[in-house]
Model the fold of this input.
Amino acid sequence: MTSQPFDFLRANFEKRLALTPAESDTLNAEFKLRKLRKKQAIIQPGFIAQHRNFVAAGALRAYVIDHKGLDHTIQFAIEDWWITDYNSYVNQQPATMFVEALEDSTILQIDYHREQALKKSDHKFETLFRMMAEKAAAFQQRRVISSLTYSAEERYREFLEMYPSVVQRLPQYALASYLGMTTEFLSKIRNNRVKKKKLADS
Done:
């Protein structure tokens, strides 16, 4: 088994908190490597999310389906990002979201009960996972504010500025549902941006 995904995980942790080699080894030992095929789901509504997932390679998305059958993307995750149904995982209650691979992907998973044991075993591990939770909460707050106060075009521009390399990897339907618009409207925004750029360059 290649160590590269685990090296990537180690680097993700050490960006947040200085760890000794022994502490890094203890953390890494609790994660299991899993390969996913494109469109393979790892979480489905009605089943408890048992894992927190680190993306070592590939791309995933979390989404819900409303009563009209329309899907709404809640989160994306590419390399070096984390994903799960957090309400289900934290509270150990049935999930409301799907989490599936957008590409063939490699993830590292930690089991909920193993994470709890880690946090009880060492205050440093408790601090690390708390920092991760705080960052995720801050991101979700920014996203809610953006969805409430920005126009559709502004939301697209913000996403493009923050994640220019990610945009090219996402299916248009998934990006549109994340931004709260139809695929047709997203296509229109993109076409208008191309036209404006051509005019500016001419």
Notes: Strands lie at 31-36, 41-43, 51-57, 59-65, 71-78, 82-83, 98-101, 105-111. The chain has a mean pLDDT of 93. Residues 24 and 47 are 31 Å apart (CA to CA).
